[in-house]
Amino acid sequence: MKNKISLINHYGNGNAVLKMNYKKGLASLLVMLTLSFSGTSLYAQSMGISNTLITPDPSSILELRTTSKGMLIPRMTTTDRDAISTPANGLMIYNTVSKQFNFYNGSFWVALLSGSASSLSVDSGSTLSTSSTTDVVLEGMSKTVQEAGTYLALFNGQVIIPAASNSVGFSTATAKSDLNFIYTDITNIPVTNTAHALTFGSGEILFPGVYTITGAMSIAGTLTLDGQGDANALFIIRGSAAFNTGADVTVKLINGASAENIYWVANDAIGLGANTIIQGTLFSNSAAIAVGAGCKVTGRLLTKGGALAFGPGELSLPLNDSSIDFRTVDTFIMFTGGGGVANTGASTYTSDIGTNLGAITGFESATVDGTIYQAGSTTTVTAVNHMATFSLYKNGVLILNSSRTRTHLKNPSDVSLQGFAAAAAGDTIDVRWKIDEQPSDLKDISVNNRILTLVKVGN
After folding, report:
1. What is the pTM of this model?
2. How far is CA 139 from CA 50, 151, 451, in A?
């Protein structure tokens, strides 16, 4: 069979000025073309190769037209392909290992889609629910890769997160009983120092320990508690009578000393002079606690039986948990087993306040970031904004940056995930989900109308 080569050159007006037809065997034509191009420069807008005379399409630099033959481009292994030095953008080969055409996109080699499993997909419209607070596989949203390569994982679904609340019951009678346990826990800790004077402070630096005082103890001037580098350093100062501070007393903490591990325990009444700055829990076994104007306390005021008076000043809960179990009064900054609770002036309270017996008064002018509990039983209902998190995993490992979170504020809410993963044949890519860990009466999220798709984008 004869093959013909047509070379067409056009000026800007589209007029043909050169047309060459070679009615020779294909081998001869290739030789002639080689000789022509090696001897002179041949400029053509279009070239056509066919077994009949054709006019190449002017939009193509090369047109091949036949109904009985194909075209072969370079065939090589993946190793050979990767050994090509600085491949040109758009360079194309046939990969004999993956049996796919590959082209270089300027950054990496990409496989052209073929009849092989280059994309995988699964979908479902059923509704599923979970209350798991750790990532679990979303049932049905999992695919196993059949062919090694780089995959784009895509997920879309609708999540429903019902509005929830948390109901917590509280009994002041139980709290009163718990005060006895807490007091016993503190006083049962072995004493380490029985020789300290009745008065602390006046520039003194005190080291960790359990100090017991016979008589009425007090603080004057400045007292520094030195934790000696121990974040759990324990300071317990307890006396057999009353405990008082003078005006303008300051208790400083250094080297790891922390308010949650400091306890001032008195058998009788406790009084803080004006402008006292003190850290720790103040606990009276049987009497009142009165805090003067301008005081700043980071800790708790607790008494098993006596009135509590504060203000104006600042009272806040320590940031960290204590080594002592405060049971039902863990969130309280003021609680008495029997007595009134009174505020004076524009005080600031950060956390809960309560009494088992007595009136709570004067808080109209105060700022309270917490709950005030009158005597009796109370159920507190708090709105909970649950969050659902969806993520992509490969073989049980999170695909980086693929997680997305939704809340119940918009229901149903669409959630879309996207991630890239290099996968070997047999690797599994799946969608996992969870709900955040918040106590609530209803802890359940649902999902429907979902689809997972894996698209192979590279080798």
Report:
1. 0.55
2. 56, 21, 11
